[in-house]
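Support reply, case 0932

Customer input (verbatim):
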Amino acid sequence: MKGKPPMRIPLSVLDLAPIVRGETVTTSIAASVALAQRAEEHGFERVWYAEHHNMPTIASSATSVLIAHVGAQTRSIRLGAGGVMLPNHSPLTIAEQFGTLEAMYPGRIDLGLGRAPGSDQNTMYALRRDPRSADRFPQDVVELQGYLNGETRVAGVDAIPGKGSRVPLYILGSSMFGATLAAALGLPYAFASHFAPQMLEPAVEAYRSEFKPSEQLDRPYVIAGVNVIADDTEDGARAQLEAVRRNLATGLFGRGRPLTDEQADQLLAQGAGQHVGSMLTHTAVGTPAQVADHLEGFRKTADADELIVAFQSPTVEGRLRSVELTAQALAG
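Our regenerated output:
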């Protein structure tokens, strides 16, 4: 927000547009608008939305459509994909979509790219995705970049809109593959440490050591994902964390069935807890001061230039309050 002093650590938001139990897609999208507006008000850099398919608790499958809707109801915060799963699409289609967004909201659009399916095998079939399409990811990124930069690599084909828009690209990943590709292409690198923390440090080290400057970027730039649950009291934050753990256990191991808290706790005790705990390795939980301490330590661990936060509170009100408290804790 204009006039807001910068935070000690550049912070952004990763919004999975969660559909909580008892709510609808319509209310989920309204919550995403409110979250982006609150993040803008408190000086966050950007809000990204992730492409997922066939997931009953996530409403961000049509990523570019959601960005367009949120853009119309915000003024200055950057908006983008974190990310588009490029093997699900043709590079030309994505160039046209994000070229359109850039024309609508000049200077506010980011395009993060991943190569995972964002879905299961049956959904891959429904998407008409070629199982080998991930192998072409590096070539598809270069083709997409050509459309956006007005230097098409397909004779006689331009992205309209999109040509010359130079929407900035980001490579997303949780392994060495994305790190080395981002370094080779001279693009910013965003690591999904908010749910896949295992390779964070070696991947960032490889990216920084192998980075080659490009027209878009002259030096390495790392964004690292981290979960946050901030509350006015530590007990309140811990209670929210338990609800998040139950939701994850149900979503991952409940086989599509709604579970009571007691059933979810039983799943956690039987082994799901270890998996969920691993996913939540990088999670800041507690009062504003505790969250700030955790984020400052995590930034050093990740060797990150910017942190992108998944606010994990199970309610809309909790997520909005987390945004406020985190910004206040890190105010410059």
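We compared this against your earlier run and they match. Two observations from our side: DSSP finds eleven helices and nine strands in the chain. Residues 14 and 87 are 21 Å apart (CA to CA). Please reopen the case if you see a mismatch on your end.
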